[in-house]
Each structure stands twice: as C-alpha cells, then as structure tokens.
Amino acid sequence: MATPLEKWVEEQAKLTKPDKIYWCDGSEDEARRLIEIGMKEEKIGDVPIFQELNQKSWPNAYYHRSHPTDVARTEHLTYVCHPDKEVAGSNNNWMHPDEAKEKMRKLSDGCMKGRTMYVLPYMMGHPDSPYAKACIQLTDVSYVAVSMRIMTRMSKEIIEKIGTREDFVKGLHSVGDFDPNKRFIMHFPDEHLVWSIGSGYGGNALLGKKCFSLRIASWLGFQEGWLAEHMVILGIEDPKGNVTYVTAALPSACGKTNLAMLESALPGYKVWTLGDDIAWLNVGPDGRLWAINPEAGLFGVAPGTSMKTNPNMLKTLKAANFYPTLFTNTGLDIDTNEPWWEGLDGAVPKNLIDWQGKVWDSSSNSKAAHPNSRFTVSINNSPTLSKEFDNPKGVPISAIILGGRRTQLIPLVTESFNWQHGVYLGAQTGSETTAAAAHQVGQLRRDPMAMLPFCGYNMGNYFQHWLNIGKKLTQPPKIFSVNWFRVDDEGKFIWPGFGENIRVLKWIVDRVHNRVKAEETPLGLVPDMRDLETGGLDISKEKLAKLFEINAESWKQELQDIEKFLNQFGNRTPSEIWQEHKKLSEQFNNNGERGGA
Ligand code: GTP
Ligand code: SPV
Ligand code: MN
C-alpha cells in the first residue's frame, strides 16, 4: 500500500505532469549527476543551469546564472494563508487558503511538463534532535536540488523516518516559466505546506529555509512554546578558553554571516560558528534558552566578502570536500574561469562578464556581480565550525543581540534593562532595506527582530510570545541591541566592523559574566568607554562618542514612527510593549538631550 508520502507525491505529479520523477538519496554521486544534468541538459533560456568553475583555485565550485528577473526574495508575492486574515496580521500578505490553492492549482497545472520532478527528503535540524523536523520538497530544477543538499541534511533515511506519518513538512516548488507575473510563494501554516512557483531564488525556492524554518516554524513555535528566529548562533571563546554562546538577529544583508564567522581582531578571542541565518530556540528543563541551527549550509552574500572582511568565509569557499559550492549571479573572469564580485581581494580582472552574461565595462556604473549575488556552501567546510554544531540538544544562550542597519541614531551597542525592555528594543528596531529582497534599497522600515518578512503570524502576537517565553526562563539571556552601520558627515562607516566587532562581543560577554559595569542612558545601558576595548583601533575620541550619541530631537521623530508601526497591530500589541514605549517617550520629552558616551 502506498504511504501518505507516496500518495502526496503522486498527487502533485498528477497536477504538475513531470516527464520523470526522481527520488533523491542525498549521496555524493547523486550530487555529481545532478550537476552534470545541470551542465548538459537543463537550461534557463539557452544558459545551462551550471557551469564548471576553475577547479584548481575553486575546488568543487560551479556557477549558476539565474533568470534576470529572479535575483532576490519577492516579499510582495509572498503570502501567509491562515484561514483568518487577522491571524496573518498586517505584517503579511494574506489570501484565503481556498483561494490561494485554487490560484496555485491553475498556475501549477502541467508546470513540470518536459522536466524532472526531484523528490528531496531532508531534515531541518540534526536527525537525533527532539526539535528537528522531517521534510519533503518537490522541485523541477537541479539547482534547487543541489542547493537543498548543501543547505539541509538530505538523505534517504528521512523517507524511513517519515514512514507512514502524514504530518511531514511539505514543499511543492516549480520554476514555472520564471514569469514574475506568475510568481507566488504561498504558505499554509496549518498544513505545514509551502507552495512556490515562478522563482528559483534562495528564499523563494529552498522551501526548508525562510518558508518553513521561519514563516511556518514561527507559527508552530507560537503554538508550542518555542521561537523560530532569523538569527546567527555563535560561540565566543575568551582567552581562558571559556565559550559563551549568543544569538544575533540582523535583517537580510546586515551582517549575520560575517558575524557568525568573525576572525577576531583581539588576541586570545575566537568565534565558533553554529549557524548564520536561522535559530530555533527552546526553553530547556534548566530554565535556560537553548538554540539549534536547523540548517547545514551557508547561503551568503558575495559582494564585500574578502580576506580582509571575512577570511574564514574565503577559506570555507576554497575548502575542497565532497560538497559542491555554488556561486549565483556573481561576475565571471573569462580568462581564469573564476567567480568575481565587488570587494574581492586583488586587482579587478581585465575580462569579466557580468551577472547577466554581458561583457562588463569597468568604466560604467554597473556592478559586475549582482548586489545580491550569493554563494551556497556547506557549513562543514568552515574552519570555525563549532564542535557543538551537531549536538542534538543545541547550545545554551547567554545573550541575544538584536540589530539593524542604521546610518544614524542607533548606538553601536546598548544593553536592555531587562527581558521586557529587550523585547521592546527588538520590537521597535528599524533597518534600511538591502538588495536581499526586490524593493528600493536604503529605505528605513521597522524590522522587529529582523523578522518582518519572516514572521508567519500577526506580529502583535509575536511580541506577546516573546514576553511569554521570557516568563518561562529562569536564566534568561541578556538582550542587547547593536548597529555597525552608523556613518559620519561624509557618509563613511564610523565603526570598522567585521573582525573588529569582537570588541563589542567582548563587552557583551563581560556584561553576561558581570565583569564590568555599564552606564545608564534613556535607551538602555552602554559601555563605560574604559571597558570597551579600543586599543589599536584607528578611531578618534570624537568619532567614538558619535557612535553612542543620542539625539533627543531625532528620537522624538523616531518614536512617532515606532508608534505608528506598533499601532498597526491594534490591541494585539501587548500592553508591556506600550509601557516601555511610554517610558522611553517620557525620557525624551522630559529630559531633553542626553549624551550616552
Ligand atoms: P542574509 O544572508 O541576507 O540574511 O544576510 P546577512 O545578515 O548574513 O549579511 P552578511 O553577513 O552577508 O553581510 C551583508 C553585507 O553587509 C555584506 O556586503 C557585508 O560585507 C556587509 N557587512 C557585514 N558586516 C559588516 C560590518 O560589520 N560592517 C560593515 N560596514 N559592513 C558589514
Ligand atoms: C535573506 O534574505 O535573509 C537570506 C537570503 O538569508 S534568503 O535565503 O533568500 O532569504
Ligand atoms: Mn537571512
């Protein structure tokens, strides 16, 4: 008798009508075969899905050029289909599940004709973890199959694990004809189902990632008492060899991957990588917050990655092992057959083709690599991989860092007074938009806990859920806010960032272990400048002070914007959040300007 899984696959095949159905086993041989298929058979227009790169300098690396309209997440085409619109909240696009399915059925009818349907069995989280989830994704393109193999734990054992169960996580994906007018990413949270058509891009197409592990998992977490967050997980080792685990939520293209693999500028300190994008957080029996990374790969922004900014990532990308490494929409050096992007070390190659396959003119303003060009690589290649990465229990978290990309206003680092205040700091976070999604870049928007595009239910309830989790923790992590992106009058970043961010992490660790005091400001606690390790940094006292400046006039405006945002969720915004908002507003209205430094 057919299992529920087999029946489901059969039903989807009846609708999408592929020529062939291929069940993946996640093996190395299979990955090679899929890459061969992508080099020889499958194409986008007349461009092969994969092109082999220089195997000497970039072992196991392959190049992929996407459809030119398909280079980033498309938030306006992403829907969360709860039966009740209010449950989805104003933070999500909403369609009734019946209507959404009807629409998707029409678009999917015969969409895999002439193609192969790949059945991908994978786990989000270590198979032995009580928090892990068994999943199946169907897709019709080798690029997605290979990417999922890098990004998740894919193996045929997952099929046995699912067995006769019906509650496995389901993803149906087709690139369709890449028509942006027929592109939709639909979520059906109660059915653990994601249905996506028209895009082959990461967050739209690797359905275990943002779609399941954040949008749907956040909804599961809300119901079951845990958190699914857009966070890196890292261990910070101090000179005595003690490791403190922290998570950090920063919006898309705001520095998570770089933070997760940071090469410490302070002697004796070391960062260990556990995850660079997603954390699932559970309250442990010990009253601490425990984090696992459901993913197994890194899907990182290429531009800006160099031996100066992120040497560990370049080492990861060049580490030859059995996992392929993919480069998507970077430039290509036609003399050496190597990928290239703005910010990479060394001279700009003479003969480049750009991410659209055209000869690149270095005197033009255009970029050779798309600003959201990316690499896909196994986390196991990373020289900084934590030995706890495969621990099914995860790691206990001592600090949560919340941040955004703010050229003005927000201090380099602030510690919240307590959990409730920390949740407020996260809830009001704003960030300037980036190329990770298709929209105007550089626009300020509220992006609470970096989850605006990923919270699969009403954000008002999400804030309440955070407050509730805090009540269950007898040893809650301290909550901090950071901002690496404040600029000077000439528009230059004041803080050197990258490896120097360890200085901020050190202060955070010192605070966690009560090694240093802090100074109170209206926004929260900031370092006594004697405790922020700045030795060896080329930064003036004035500039350092600027990083912590709190401008009351600007804050009055900011508070209005925050208020408008929090009001969107009506009475679902918790009263505790309003309490904190009121307290902060009163500080500025009563006290006038106060410098934090
Ligand atoms: P997603 O994968 O989209 O979730 O992005 P992410 O949050 O992992 O961002 P990532 O680390 O890839 O960085 C995005 C961009 O920000 C890159 O161009 C980096 O070079 C830049 N960046 C990262 N960290 C810093 C920093 O500390 N300072 C400055 N100025 N730029 C940074
Ligand atoms: C992001 O946009 O936050 C990413 C890339 O991490 S994607 O997987 O496409 O969402
Ligand atoms: Mn991300």
Structural write-up:
Helix content is 28%, strand content 23%. With 597 residues, it is an alpha+beta fold. It starts with a helix and ends in a 6-residue tail after the last helix. β17 (279-283) and β18 (289-292) form a beta hairpin. The strands form 8 sheets. Strands 1, 6, 7, 8, 9, 10, 11 and 12 form an 8-stranded mixed beta sheet that branches. A 6-stranded mixed beta sheet has the order 16-14-15-26-30-27, sandwiched between helices. It has a 5-stranded mixed beta sheet with strand order 4-5-20-24-19, sandwiched between helices. The protein binds guanosine-5'-triphosphate, sulfopyruvate (SPV) and manganese (II) ion (MN). Guanosine-5'-triphosphate binds next to α9 and β19. Manganese (II) ion is lined by residues 230, 252, 277.
Oligomer: single chain
**Portion in beta strands:** 15-25%
Q: Tally of extended strands?
A: 32
The biggest sheet amounts to: 8 strands, mixed
Coarse morphology: globular
Q: What is the averaged pLDDT score?
A: 97
What's the quick description here?
28% of the residues lie in helices and 23% in strands. With 597 residues, the chain is α+β, with helices and mostly antiparallel strands.
